[in-house]
């Protein structure tokens, strides 16, 4: 597909939207005047999707247009500067992109507000434009409406009231891409402060939310702007920074310049009760979106193949900024646990996309936003580079990048050039291999005759084509005599180190290590002796999980490795222990006797910490303990410990939902549901609370708890609600679906639901970036050969959809790999559990 920017280059848009008939007629009218340069001899073309074009002029002359395939073609071939005016209208729909309504209830009344979501290619659903990131222009936006609060990227310049409604006019934006334009209009409450630099910072939410719940985000947003101002050495580029919590929102958050939008769970937190994870999540989402205000908004990728410039960088900055603001949160350990784990899992499946991937159509662009690759892996690669060149050179390079390219567009090489200049190292030579090759290596480390051999090979889980890919691997060895970078297939070192050998000891490179028996024994000893840091222990265990998945070590050794973690008290390590237990579940999924053995192991490992932590917060305890308590109690409940179950049930019975400890709430609700003798009653009660509460946080905890029911009738009831968007908002459907699939008792029915409701799913989620979550999560959670056959049969015909094909192909390999592994390792894994 050719780009429109090559023939028409917009310089300025004047856009007015008229929202006055939004509620009554589901209709929005608009006028757009576009100034730009027409470079080609062909007719002018603009993107326009589902817009009713009413009148068009070019240079004040009425001109005919035609629309085909979301492109509006003008019957005009004038070259040079042109001014186009278009009157149009559009129908408001619930799709959560373009201009869309959000619904909420306040004081018993159903109300709505209006918001926009334009990334990646939905600006064309709101106004005719060249909807490509390179087509930067200035925007003068105005909105005619009767809504009490109207926000856009820039501050308001004037508000004129008339009998017609209020016309709000905003200051002109700097040069920016169409996908970053935005507005929100409705009844909103505001909390306000200023960053040190004087930039105004506001948080908005509907009046249905408690006023307190805006404050955590407000303080955090202001501090994060201060941090980036200092860290980047380039000031926040706009006069204000708004953050709006929207009741209906398809993704997590969106970095519209000056007007960041969020789903409610990603911004609002009741300071008295919010869990530690909720506060950490909000802090990282804010940091992510604020970092985009520079990286992405001020300087933007030329085209979507360089999307990683936006998202990988923002992922790194989530942790970098929050780590600076909350050193006690040990965000780099979290980085390894969240991004590292996700990237290593996804990136080991054959057919995975590289971080930098060529795309042309909107469907391909949607499929690009793979959180595990473009976010997690890319973020990890940038971290690897940052540590390689050092923070000082990293910051100097970034400053130069922002200064040189502000208000314009770049490719990866522009960034590498700035960083190379600042560091004196050839950054592109290291990074280009990593971003353009899919997958990652496993390094085999083995001792033989006093010699250490290191050998790299691509690491796979599941069926795969042979690969001879090589990477320049920053080894990060704890022993200085090892090379800094392993470039070749194989390298030997003599004499071999005789003590503990750790590769990637800061977990900053994207590879895993398969140690031979001798080296592995030394590491296990070091763990027992308490010599490794928590991050190293977590990393070691996570790599064992991966090696077991890839068939490079037997799954039974994972069971044995867990024994070294009996005394573990560190929260970040426990996150990985919990992952290891959950990874072993596949071997016992179809075998209740064997499952008892795994449950027993879970209880045995958690018992010590359970005794230390109990159910209640200790005065002054570190936040990591509050977080750990939740993981430990989950393990105890999984072990079916009678006392734990009974305490959970009592807590549920004696405490109003909103007063349960938020850290433990989903676990408590889950246990109360699973072990209730009146499943229908408790599910009804919870569904009522689900509908009554205005807290999205509580709603998501209720969903997670209820979906663990084992009662067939209740499961059928919940599955019946999935298409009822009056109860389950479409922003939450996938979460419910995944929770039900994860539940062994609900899996089959949820899987049947997905297939029988596919046309509803298509209607509701097609052209949304969550579309491919369905094949992706189904593959992750299905468990039998029969289901694999059904998966193939159902999804193979859907491969023609470009937004699904990769998820389907990888899904088949993912599921097949898991089933092969179950066949191969099940008996030995169960035997190891029985010991
Ligand atoms: N730019 C994205 C959001 C986005 C991407 C919206 C593609 C529509 C299409 C935003 O910066 C983002 O990455 N949001 C994340 C949350 C973040 C904290 C990881 C999301 O929505 O998942
Ligand atoms: Zn982002």
Layout of helices and strands:
Layout: E1 8-18, H1 22-25, E2 27-38, E3 45-47, E4 52-58, E5 61-62, E6 65-68, E7 71-74, E8 80-91, E9 98-106, E10 109-117, E11 138-145, E12 149-152, E13 156-162, E14 165-170, E15 183-186, E16 189-194, E17 200-205, H2 215-232, E18 240-246, E19 253-254, E20 259-263, H3 276-292, E21 299-301, H4 307-325, H5 331-346, H6 362-368, H7 371-389, H8 391-405, E22 408-410, H9 412-423, H10 427-436, E23 441-448, E24 451-458, E25 473-474, E26 485-486, E27 490-493, E28 512-515, H11 517-528, H12 534-549, H13 555-562, H14 571-588, H15 592-613, H16 623-638, H17 642-654, H18 665-674, H19 679-692, H20 696-706, H21 712-721, H22 733-742, H23 747-756, H24 758-765, H25 773-781, H26 785-795, H27 805-834
Parallel strand pairs: 1-11, 17-18, 18-20, 21-22, 23-28
Antiparallel strand pairs: 1-2, 2-8, 3-7, 4-5, 4-8, 6-7, 9-10, 10-15, 11-14, 12-15, 13-14, 16-17, 19-20, 23-24, 24-27, 25-26
Helix pairs in contact: 2-3, 2-4, 3-4, 4-5, 4-7, 5-7, 5-12, 7-10, 8-9, 12-13, 12-14, 13-27, 14-15, 14-16, 14-27, 15-16, 17-18, 18-20, 19-20, 22-23, 22-25, 25-27, 26-27
The structure holds ligand BES and zinc ion.
Residues 288, 292, 310-311, 314 line the site of zinc ion (ZN).
């Amino acid at each position: 597909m050719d780009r429109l920017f090559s023939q028409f280059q917009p310089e300025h848009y004047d856009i007015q939207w008229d929202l006055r008939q939004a509620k009554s007629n589901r209709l929005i009218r608009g006028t757009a005047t576009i100034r730009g340069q027409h470079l080609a001899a062909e007719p002018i073309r603009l993107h326009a999707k589902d817009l009713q074009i009413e009148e068009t002029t070019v240079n004040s002359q009425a001109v005919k247009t035609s629309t085909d395939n979301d492109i509006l073609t003008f019957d005009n071939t004038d070259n040079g500067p042109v001014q186009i005016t278009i009157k149009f209208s559009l129908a408001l729909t619930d799709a959560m992109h373009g201009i869309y309504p959000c619904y909420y209830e306040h004081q018993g009344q159903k109300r709505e507000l209006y918001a926009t979501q334009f990334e990646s290619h939905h600006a064309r659903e709101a106004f005719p434009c060249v909807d490509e990131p390179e087509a930067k222009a200035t925007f003068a936006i105005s909105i005619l409406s009767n809504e009490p609060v109207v926000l856009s990227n820039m501050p308001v310049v004037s508000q004129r009231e008339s009998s017609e409604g209020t016309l709000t006019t905003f200051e002109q934006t700097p040069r920016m891409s169409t996908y970053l334009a935005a507005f929100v209009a409705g009844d909103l409450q505001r909390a306000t402060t200023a960053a040190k630099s004087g930039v105004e910072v506001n948080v908005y939410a509907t009046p249905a939310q408690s006023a307190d719940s805006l404050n955590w985000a407000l303080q955090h947003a202001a501090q994060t702007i201060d941090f980036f101002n200092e860290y980047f050495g380039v000031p926040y580029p706009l006069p204000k920074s708004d953050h709006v919590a929207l009741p209906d929102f398809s993704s997590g958050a969106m970095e519209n310049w000056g007007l960041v939008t969020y789903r409610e769970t990603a911004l609002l937190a009741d300071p008295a009760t919010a869990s530690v994870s909720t506060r950490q999540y909000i802090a990282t989402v804010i940091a992510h979106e604020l970092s985009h205000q520079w990286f992405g908004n001020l300087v933007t990728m030329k085209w979507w193949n360089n999307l990683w410039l936006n998202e990988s960088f923002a992922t790194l900055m989530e942790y970098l900024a929050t780590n600076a603001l909350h050193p006690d949160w040990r965000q780099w350990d979290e980085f390894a646990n969240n991004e590292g784990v996700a990237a290593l899992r996804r990136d080991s499946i054959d057919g995975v996309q590289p971080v930098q991937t060529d795309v042309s159509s909107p469907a391909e662009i949607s499929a690009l936003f793979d959180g595990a690759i473009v976010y997690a892996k890319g973020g990890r690669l940038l971290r690897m580079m940052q540590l390689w060149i050092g923070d000082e050179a990293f910051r100097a390079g970034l400053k130069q990048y922002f200064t040189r390219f502000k208000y314009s567009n770049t490719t990866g090489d522009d960034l590498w050039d700035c960083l190379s200049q600042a560091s004196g190292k050839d950054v592109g030579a290291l990074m280009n291999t990593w971003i353009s090759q899919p997958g990652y290596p496993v390094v085999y480390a083995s001792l033989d005759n006093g010699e250490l051999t290191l050998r790299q090979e691509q690491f796979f889980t599941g069926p795969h084509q042979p690969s001879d890919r090589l990477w320049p691997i920053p080894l990060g060895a704890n022993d200085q005599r090892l090379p800094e970078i392993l470039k070749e297939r194989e390298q030997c070192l003599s004499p071999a180190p005789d003590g503990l050998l750790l590769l990637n000891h800061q977990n900053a490179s994207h590879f895993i290590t398969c140690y031979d028996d001798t080296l592995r024994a030394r590491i296990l000893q070091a763990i027992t002796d308490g010599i490794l840091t928590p991050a190293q222990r977590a990393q070691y265990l996570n790599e064992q999980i991966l090696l077991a998945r890839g068939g490079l070590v037997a799954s039974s050794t994972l069971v044995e490795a867990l024994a070294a973690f009996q005394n573990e008290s560190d929260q970040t390590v426990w996150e990985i222990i919990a992952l290891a237990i959950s990874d072993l579940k596949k071997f016992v999924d179809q075998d209740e006797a064997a499952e008892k053995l795994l449950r027993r192991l879970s209880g045995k490992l958690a018992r010590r910490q359970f005794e230390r932590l109990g159910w209640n917060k200790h005065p002054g305890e570190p936040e990591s303990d509050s977080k750990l308590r939740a993981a430990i109690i989950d393990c105890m409940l999984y072990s079916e410990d009678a006392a734990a179950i009974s305490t959970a049930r009592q807590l549920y019975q004696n405490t109003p939902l909103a007063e349960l400890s938020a850290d433990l709430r989903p676990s408590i609700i889950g246990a109360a549901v699973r072990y209730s003798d009146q499943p229908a009653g408790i599910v009804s009660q919870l569904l009522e609370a689900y509908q009554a509460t205005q807290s999205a946080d509580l709603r998501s905890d209720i969903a997670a708890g209820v979906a663990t029911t084992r009662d067939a009738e209740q499961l059928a009831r919940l599955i019946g609600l999935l298409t009822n968007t009056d109860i389950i908002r479409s922003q939450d459907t996938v979460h419910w679906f995944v929770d039900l699939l994860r539940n062994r008792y609900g899996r089959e029915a949820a899987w049947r639901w997905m297939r029988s409701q596919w046309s509803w799913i298509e209607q509701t989620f097609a052209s949304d970036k969550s579309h491919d979550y369905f094949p992706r999560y189904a593959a992750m959670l299905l468990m039998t050969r029969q289901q694999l056959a059904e998966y193939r049969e159902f999804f193979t015909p859907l491969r023609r959809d470009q937004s699904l094909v990769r998820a389907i192909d990888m899904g088949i390999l993912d599921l097949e790999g898991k089933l092969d592994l179950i066949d191969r390792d099940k008996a030995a894994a169960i035997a190891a559990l029985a010991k």
